[in-house]
## 1
Amino acid sequence: MGGKQADSIMPRGVAIHGKSLRITFHYKGQRCRESLRLPPTKSNIKYATGKLAAINHEIKSGVFLYHAHFPESERALQFDGSCKRAGIRLNILCDEYKALKYTDIGHAAQRRYDIAFNQCLSILGPSRLIDAICPEDIMRLRSELLNTRAASTTNHYMAAMRGFLRFAEQNGYTKNHLANELRPAKKSTSDPDPFTLDEFRRAQTACTHEAHENMITLMVYTGMRPGEISALAWEDIDLVKKTLTVSRAYSDGKIKKPKTDEIRTIQLSPPALSALSGQRKFTEMLPALQVKMEGLHKKPEAIDIHPVFLPATTCRNNQFNILYRTTSIRVLWKNIVRRSGIRYRTVYQLRHTFACWNLTAHGNIAFIAKQMGHADYSMLIRVYGRWMENESCAENLRIWEALEAMGHAEKAPIAPQEIKKEA
């Protein structure tokens, strides 16, 4: 068993194992045996002796790298994990990264990441070695993305790649600082383009079904997203307390949590209450619909809901989806705008309209942000800032009137001559 020591010419630490030479040395307190895969000839024994001497010298000097001498050895992983990281290809490492990253994101986000990685790797070359990629390659990637795609699309692709490249850097797959080269592109910010009250009333008049009017009225007076409107159920509504709970959204053919994964409660205004009251006769008494609620890290849960808006109640033929898809709401809105004759803006502008109307009415910023489902009101200030600046003189007067009611009184400045008299 084991290696057999040869004649007196065989030095200590070199042995014949099977049909090849094997060397033995001690590293980090352990005995290590590695086959050289060389037949036991005199010249090979001399080579093995020199290699063993070199290894022992490097061990004493503290510069020994196991994988440098034995790159295919399983034992190299035990002492030097970097051997696994050397010479890995982009597409293979990207697959490893996705397996880790995708545990924290939903299916829709995974598809968007897949597109981003496929596009970027096709430009860089999927079979290239990660440690052979230099900053110049990443600069070329950014340049090509900017020249062929919109800034918003480019920023999405680069954000996905930044995460991947940082993963490669932090885990020693590359020594180059590649992620720093993917700076976000400056994109032309398109300001919200809200509807005026007259425009919205014309849109209401152009609806061919009362349920459609109820839908757009609820959207403009709650700021709900189209996917949230599609998944809204009567179980989420309390007409007595005048509240509506946004607990799910319908997207990509699946019921899941809202965009920010946060359940929020909306305080309903009179127009929103009126729209819901008018919608009751269409869908409230219909049988419950069983749907599967998608959840991250858990199996879909079957739930029964009574949707507020159903295509079946308004469709003129038998070809309709169970719930309103986002694309269906877009088409519906486009037809309403066309019939009304108002200038076309996307259906998402109804959400912007809710924010702008509330801000020009001097609504509380934190309250509006909570109604819309924003994590904080910084985005509200950034996106809708100019609506908050409207009527600043009137707002100043309103604030002063409130301060006066609290006891703040205007006091005229003392004239210089009065000060002299007092002295």
## 2
Amino acid sequence: MGKLQKSLKTRHITMISIGGVIGTGLFVGTGKNILSTGPAVVVSYAIACLLIVFIMQMVGEMASGELAMGEKAGGNAEMGSFASYAGKYIGPWAGFTVGWLYWASWVFIVGLEAALIGGMLNAWFPFIPIWVGSVGITLLMTLINIYSVKSFGEFEYWLSFIKVTAIIVFLAVGAAMIFGFWPTYEPQGLSILTAHGGFAPNGIIPILTAIVFVIFSICGAEVAAIAAAESENPAKNIVRAIRNVVFRLGLFFVGSVAIMVMILPWNDADNLAAPYANILTMAGLPIAAQIIQIVIFISLISVLNSALYTSSRMLLEMSRHGDAPKFFSLIKNKRGAPVPAIIGSTVVAYICAMLYFVSPDVIFYFLGNCVGGLMIAVYIFIAISQIRFRRHYDNNSDTPLTIRMWLFPYLSYATIAILSLVYLCQMMIDSLRAQFYLSTAVLIVSVLLFFVLKKLSPRTSEVVEENLKPESN
């Protein structure tokens, strides 16, 4: 079957963990959230970031625990495999559901990013058809992933480096403007937070509903935990990746939004259409708009690259646990790349990208409306898995956990409750109501599909259940 090569270096994991959540949602969606919520959107971002931090802490706890138990038993650790965690500690149906929903969400993201990249290339170079740019970029990322995990890590390292540098420049310039250190800008002080209808001009409900949009923008932090399993020092790097999540979410997301609402009136729709570029332009940097466009393009490529990597690893794990065809568990080259899983994910991603051109308002819209809700559902499964994992671990192991969820079990239960509330909040937003119903339907169908397949192939199901059963000392 072959083994994945642990060829990612610590610097790869560090930069992937720092830049992993910096996507187009941060550059494009932030202004829309401010317009709908007002300055109080800072609270929405803080709550959403805390939820993701909690989820990452849970993932880190399970990953470090699985590593410790795997080493003690002389077997393989299942770091970062959310499907295997759910399968072990909730039930095989949960592992099946989480695996396929998570895989499908990331494969669709590959297709979405490819379509957007094709559109940007066509806008810059009209002689390049959109579909050519989409297919070409996806093919390039596929080849990079197939060559080796190290090539993926190196490519993602530099993409993340550019994104992080751009955000740091924005934060530095914005902070200088706010505190009066920038010569061409006169700061407005704290009064700007209440001068245009108050801190929460549209009330409390928009603060809560904005959390939905923010979570959709920052999902993907867990990619670093998956990548840590293929690094030179998994135990050390999983801890490093989790700790970086707290720092980067607070600085990049909450920090960026705080700077925006301190410089731009919350109802300034023109400037908030492209807040990063416009604030830098206000600071006297005339080429800021062009630079931000390039950074957005790089972010699209980075997300596509990470999405292809993540979906292929999830397909590989599902195959190894019997939830996907065994063919996808093969490691087909000497560098340890799961070629069948990468190609399988790429083929489906191509189909998703083509749907953007064939049926953008029906099929593609349907798929897109499922992704956000399904990600929240996966996070809820992760939280439930962590609660059951901790109880199993405490009863069967005396090795201290490298990472522990804070205030267990209370904070774990609170996270589940808040995520469930956020999921239900989709019904309160006109633009997300369809997403709620579609994602809920897909979730139910996925669970039913497991039991249908189990009935059709009972022997395989019994083997899978036995493999996923937690072992006792």
## 3
Amino acid sequence: MPSDTSAPTAPAITASYRDLLRNSEFAGLYASFTLTVGASTLSGFALSTLVNHQTGSPFLTAVSMYGATFATVLGALTLMSVADGNRPRRTIVALQFVSLVGVTAQAIPGLTLAARFGLLLVLGFFQSLGTGTRMGLLSEVVPTSVYALARSLMNITSGGMAILGYAISAVLLRVLSPQGVFIVAAGLTGLALAVVTTTIREHSIRLTARPGLRQTWTTNLALFSHSGQRALLLNLWVPNGLIVGCEALFLSYDPGHAGILLAAGSAGMLLGDLTVGRLLTTDQRRRYAFALRLLLAAPYLLFAIHPPVLVAAAAVFAASIGFAATLPLQEQLLDLTPDPVRGQVQGVESAGRMTWQGLGAAIAGGTAQQFAPGTAITAIAAVSVAITIVSRPYVVRARSAYGVGPN
């Protein structure tokens, strides 16, 4: 990876959420992210409900909820270097506009399922580029010392908006058609576009090479040749993605209480990110990373006995606290990444994580086609636990090589 010693241009920010939000550019990124997550939650739940009603297929329902993640890998492999282009504001505005068009198109009455899945793939591709650009900007508008705190706040917001989004979706679908919910989601996406346009300025810590396929591959090859980064990416992607696959089966497992289970998961993720990102030090985050990765999957083993809904919701809540394991891993990945390619590397990390979420949904949905959804959830969780345990020695070795603690 090329080296870069340029210092961050953002002013120093003390370690509190309130001070982070006093930075107008971070506030703009944060607000647009919040609105985008809300829109994505509404449209995803509406689409999965529509697909479940039309097909009754656990596989198609799971894929419709997380299908956009399959296309994120295409962004990571082709044009992710645009995340480090010298006009990031223009890039993120253009990509947000494409998202607006795609979400609005889902509201077209009578659209075939094939067309809807096609839109999901297109949106996933461009959203992956938007995520890379947004994360690249984030590493420039806040100092590295509070990067984990900023990601924590955004993750907390993601969980909070998901809770609200699932609850609001359930209410809206009682009075509106799925197309009506898509229109609401399009309105939120348009508002996010307006926020980005009015709050973000251009930045100069960018690649001198021209962004494109060649530059993307050059950076990606350097990234995956780095043993420490490979180990971090594996643990950011696979256990996380498998557990998202478990969540994708909630509608098939218990259609009447799926909203409760999804909300419990979002609430657990919110608590985990708040605790780990705000209350723990860097050393403490890294010390507890392995335990958090185990917590992410172990409670789902209870689904083998088909527990009552309140017990199931409590298990999902506890497990979702483990999603906070991404924070110390992301923090370490940032430490190993030169400034000029941070947008692309973080975009690849996000794209890979989202792609594994889609793969997890497909694996879980396919398993549920052959077995009961509860059995599939248990089996996928067991695989996630096994991968976490088996991969730990490689993570320890990689971290030790770069002066990082043993967990």
